[in-house]
């Protein structure tokens, strides 16, 4: 058992666990049992990725291998994200009407519609899109910020990050919600991009977004998971990231990616997701050290 753990990248295990959970869920679903074949492409992609990493491991230092593993798996997660838009069709009707109702009860209106209408200046518009864009760079910024810590800390951060994404993907599958940008009718579901960051986000949305991932907000949840990890490992870096996290939380509603309650759910679930991911990492490391 120990040799098996030693020869495989540790990031393989949360990915394989995610694949297993999805397979079991589809097998138990009345309508999703014939969908497994359509998932073959993404599974082959990850099999190829991990084969490359296994070949790379003995040829580079532990620090380089860990960094390459985290960044490559992080990039490949986009394939699994888009997959959730098809998978959640087998697990119930969208929650959007309920989420809209909760927003209406809190504010008396729909924040995803009114926020951008009331603050539609070019500067604020670009500030919100910049805050949303910062989400994609946040993990890379943390990897840079912890580069002088022991390599094991980079591994731990990468494992928690990847595992947290996969937990949120499971949320999206079993609790379908399209989000304002897909659920509202045009032109109410659109917002004009008035600057460079806005145009970049529009390109990302056109090529990478799908009617999924609204509840809870993984953007918010992942950003708070990152902050929690930094609190215990690199606390001084929090002051640098916090302004971007605040902008991100506002931006998710402003650009109509999320309802307000999605943001609250993202914050609320982050500690649970962080704890589960870290516990799984510690369990695997314990097994590697003491398993027979």
Considering the chains and any ligands shown, give keywords for the structure:
74% helix, single chain, mainly alpha, 13 helices, 292 residues
Query: What profile does the largest beta sheet have?
Result: none
The percent range for helix content is over 70%
Overall pLDDT: 90
SS-derived structural category: mainly alpha
Which term fits the overall shape?
globular
**How many distinct beta strands?**
0
Terminal CA distance: 6 Å
What does this structure look like?
The protein is mainly α and 292 residues long. The protein has one domain. It is built from 13 helices and no strands. The termini are close together.
What is shown here, in short?
This protein is mainly alpha-helical and 292 residues long.
Secondary structure blueprint with pairings:
Layout: H1 2-7, H2 12-28, H3 40-56, H4 62-87, H5 96-107, H6 111-118, H7 122-145, H8 151-174, H9 180-183, H10 196-208, H11 218-233, H12 238-254, H13 260-290
Helix pairs in contact: 2-8, 3-4, 4-8, 7-10, 7-11, 7-12, 8-11, 8-13, 11-12, 11-13
């Amino acid at each position: 058992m120990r040799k098996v753990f030693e020869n495989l990248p540790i990031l393989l295990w949360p990915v394989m666990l995610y694949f297993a959970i999805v397979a079991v869920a589809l097998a138990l679903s009345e309508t999703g049992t014939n969908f497994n074949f359509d998932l073959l492409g993404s599974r082959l992609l990850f099999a190829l990725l991990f084969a490359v990493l296994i070949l790379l491991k003995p040829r580079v230092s532990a620090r380089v291998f860990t960094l390459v593993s985290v960044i490559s798996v992080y990039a490949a997660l986009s394939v699994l994200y888009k997959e959730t838009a098809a998978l959640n069709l087998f697990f119930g009707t969208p929650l959007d009407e309920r989420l809209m109702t909760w927003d209406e009860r809190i504010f008396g209106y729909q924040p995803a519609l009114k926020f951008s209408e009331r603050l539609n200046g070019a500067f604020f518009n670009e500030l919100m899109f910049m805050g949303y864009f910062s989400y994609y760079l946040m993990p890379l910024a943390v990897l840079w910020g912890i580069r002088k810590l022991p390599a094991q800390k980079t591994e731990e951060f990468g494992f928690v990050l990847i595992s947290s994404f996969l937990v949120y993907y499971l949320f999206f599958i079993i609790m379908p919600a399209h989000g304002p940008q897909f659920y509202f009718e045009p032109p109410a579901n659109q917002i004009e991009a008035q600057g460079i960051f806005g145009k970049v986000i529009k390109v990302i949305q056109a090529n990478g977004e799908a009617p999924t991932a609204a509840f809870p907000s993984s953007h918010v949840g992942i950003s708070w998971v990152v902050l929690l990890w930094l609190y215990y490992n690199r606390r001084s870096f929090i002051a640098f990231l916090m302004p971007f996290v605040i902008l991100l939380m506002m931006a998710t509603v402003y650009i109509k990616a999320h309802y307000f309650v999605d943001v609250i759910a993202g914050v609320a679930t982050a500690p649970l997701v962080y704890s589960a991911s870290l516990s799984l990492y510690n369990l695997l490391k314990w097994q590697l050290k003491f398993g027979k």
